[in-house]
Amino acid sequence: MEAGEEFGPWLARQLKLAHKTQAELAEELGLTRAAVSAWITRRSVPRPTVMGEIAKALGTDLGTVHTRTTDTQAGLPVVWYHRPGYQDGGRDGGNAAAFAFDADVQVLARETCQNSLDERLVENGRPVRVRYTIHELTGEALEAFRAAILWDDLQPHYEAVSRSAADQKVGRVVDAGVRDMFEKGRLILLRIDDYNASGLTGDDYDDGKFAAVVRRQLESLKSGRDAGGSYGLGKATLWATSALGMVLINSTLSVPHEGRTERRVIGRLELPWRVVDGNSYAGPAWLGRPDPETPGAEVVRSWWADEETVERLHLTRENDEAGTSFLVVGAHDVASLDQSRPDSADEDESGSDDGTRDIRVMHRRLVEALGRDFWAAMTGGGSRLPLLETSVRTLRNGEVVIEEEKVDPTDKQPSRARALRAFYEGTTVDRLTEAGQVALRTVPLRLPLSGGRSGTLGTHPGVLLVTDAEGDDVPNQVHSLRGNRMTIKKSGVANLPLGVNPFQAVLLVGRAAGETAPFAEEAEEFLRAAEPPEHDRWGQTEELTLRWSHSAHHRIARLTTEVNAAVKELVVRPRSTGSQENAKLRKKLTVSRKSAAPKRVPGPGKPELDGLDAEIGAGREWRITAEVRLPRAEELPVMTPVVLLDVRSGSRPRLDWAELVAVEGCEVEDGVLRFTPGARRAVFRGSTDVTSHPVRTELTRLVLELRAGAGSEA
To answer: What global pTM score does this model have?
Structure first.
């Protein structure tokens, strides 16, 4: 149960809200002004018999005066305040910060989850828990929500934006969002709740987390030393994901403000410049209670809402644990329309063909993003506990559409989670000799001196973990992360030789490498400065140049080189140690050095097969990996890989490809290889179609030919 505010400050605020003076209250109570002043200044409190008279004078009930956990409902009502247009005639076409990100629920998940990690309460040792709720409203539920957000007051502003939609990008998005709500009778709410986080603490206007999120742009006031954000841009993804430009907020504070912690509520609307009833408005608007201390009591501030209000606004939190709930009103996911996704054009259950508001696709994409970007933060082991727990659920008018799905890192990223857990538990090995092992190497990050000075501050030993790939989406990748354990960089390892067993690697730097790692704090600061607003790579940034030097990013490039070399040392097996079975298979696969191409290729040279590796798959198909040496030429001919059965006499039967994919330095189009200009080598993989095999696979020998031109026949 929330503790009530002290009587004096609470009474002073209620008098302002009710437009009453101390003298007027004293007169209504039949007391002296000095008695009321003594209550306000905390020198005394009223007798219990006077409490009822105070409640009557304030237009509230006795319980509200006794508990003082909410404001009275007398006085100024909750309204929308729209910032007036600039007196100098300037206009804003929307919040520029929102254009730093796409309207993409996966980007939203990355930024909001990172913010929650940064605000985790570390004293209790528990993880921050983040839950995403997708809620589609239709019919009466939609009408009730529109009434709760005072839609009738907002509609003239949306109509003004729609009239100018042709001239403004933000206006076009908003116009489409409003039309979708009315023409299709639906609205998607996306709520992000975090628990065991600091909440939006601080004053409405002065420096603090509340003002940084709700009032200001490009300001970042993070709690943690290893915070992920540093630009103050991440919060803009909330408004970018709203087709209506609207986000409502309910925060439970870890540090009391005005003696209170629960149900601090406010809303913010991001619209472009507009004219309504002859008055111009600059852009943003806020939903709150008018502040009597502002001129004309026009500017609104946050208010301490009752439980019924937060329920009508769909902002009810499940308990009194500190944290914040953000409600994105009119959520849409433009990135889900990527034509490379087979489900992007699917219709949802309501028959809509607008994939941007498909709640099932949103659900799946949120789960994918959380498992991909935050698997390390959700992994624990030994004495290290997870930093994060996440889940996603989907509702329609309060009814469950998809049950709450807790994201499990061992399910989404099994190999990487195993590697990190082995590091925490101290079970790593020096070299991989058995399946399931995790090898550890240290790689140096040589930190530069700040201020443009030449030299090295010190060497930070990053931790590289390598293990065999098992059920992961993309093998042979290095995931790099620092203190908050969010995946920052994903990269492949260049120039791997053929025949390398699939693996996964994890690079831990900064505080992620361990609290006692040398120069961990300095590495954390350096790498954080090397991240762009998207926090998806390390490289040259303006901050890195200003604080260190224009060449400081070369230190990160050298770290990458060290990582790639260490990975190769662990995963590349010496040729002499190859198994007898693989040796037998290699004998069955032959490179045809003699060109069987029906066409002659002009120029100084043509691509040639230079290396092969093969195995028999579970379906008894041949799986072949081939390396092609490319000549120096401005334009290379297309080539067709052909696989044939090796026979003693007669023509060689040609097998069909079941799959043919490019790996490096080329593209595959209709069974033809097209090589990347300037590349010196190319690699492709293929699997034969078992139905085209005339005899059992184990009894065959193959010949692989590379024929010039497309559609070459045997």
So the answer is: 0.73
